[in-house]
Amino acid sequence: MTALLDFFYLLTLLAVMAWLLANGLLWLAGRLLSPEHLSRHLWLYALTPWLAMAAPVTAMCFIAAAKPLGWIADHCAHHGMHHPHLCFEHWPALDLQWIHLLSAAALASLLIKVLTGFLFREFKAARDTIALFALSRGNGRLRRLDTPEAFACTAGYRHPALFMTRGLTDRLDHRERRIVLAHEVAHLRRRDPLRNLVFNVLLLAHWPSSARSLCALWRQRMEEQADDRAARRFGPEAVAATLIKVARLSGPSPTGSLSASGGQLLPRIHRLLHAQPDRVSRTLTISSALTITVFLGGVATLVIVHHSLETLLGFLVGV
To answer: Which carries the bigger pLDDT value, residue 136 or residue 77?
Structure first.
């Protein structure tokens, strides 16, 4: 059991080292690359710390399983008894000191803090969504709120719905109401609340500053995609004019919801009026190919240099 715990300790140490490296590179990318470039590959940047942690763990587990099968030469016998072998035949035997246990406790405390903060925010968002369903009228996905406050939003993960207040509908004409509905229906059809939740989960592995930047770009991207759906039906000028009017009328939307007035309005208006083409499917394909390539390339590289990694781990744990 002790040897197994030592093995998991080494894997965790590798994951933490890769996490620090990935976040450092993301911090550098956020200062060297433009927001437009970052917004084209948001899923790739959001996944980077997770891929960085998964690659060394996958590589080391592959090596540990491949040595007994004879796929990789077993050089464990050439090391001392306490060398941290990542192998299922020669388990590592570490002499962990109090500093290692203290580091593990600090890491566990940090993880608990991050998860607690995330769960608290999601609990508040879920409570607000339940309140919207309870106070609204209507059957199906379109729900009406009899309140003088002016806003329209989409909320809910499993069964998302579109919420629109009387205070907004009474101040819009028939065409403007249809444009707002088209924008929110685009969020519904893409299941943006659920996608937003998944993206925010991925951001848990980022530095707070990087997470905030990527979250803002992601929110802007979702609103722009919904704008494009509405613009294809009603025209970009009409959508831009309606967004300006809604922004003037709307107050803050409930926590966890997506509203037509969300994101940065001026870039959205500028984008609509200049008719920039949407290349979402193309960039998503490129991001997916880059993600797979980077991950498999990282795993292959780590398998090749695994002996050096074992030596580095031995130095870090004082073996």
So the answer is: 136
Q: Considering the domain boundaries, does residue 214 fall inside one?
A: yes
3-state secondary structure 62-128: HHHHHHHHCCCCCCHHHCCCCCCCCCCCCCCCCCCCHHHHHHHHHHHHHHHHHHHHHHHHHHHHHHH
- Strands 142-145 and 152-155 turn out to be unpaired
Of the chain, the percentage scoring pLDDT greater than 90 comes to 36
Map tokens 């406050």 to a residue.
149
Residue 39 lies in a domain: no
| Number of compact structural domains in the chain | 1
Rounded Cα distance between 227 and 163, Å, is 17
Where in the sequence is the domain holding 141, given as residue range(s)?
A: 115-278
pLDDT in tens, 287-296: 678 778 878 8
Torsion, Cα 157 159 162 164, to 10 degrees, reads -100
Q: How far is CA 302 from CA 48, 122, 258, in A?
A: 16, 37, 41
Q: Is residue 287 part of a domain?
A: no
pTM: 0.84
Average pLDDT value for residue range 22-34? 88
> What whole-number distance in Å separates Cα of residue 173 and Cα of residue 159?
29
Q: Is residue 7 assigned to a domain?
A: no
Question: How far is the C-alpha of 192 from the C-alpha of 93, rounded, in Å?
Answer: 48
Crossing angle of helices 208-234/236-249, nearest 10°?
A: 130
The span from the CA of 142 to the CA of 159, in Å, is 11
Going by C-beta distance under 8 Å and a sequence separation of 6 or more, which residues neighbour residue 173?
none
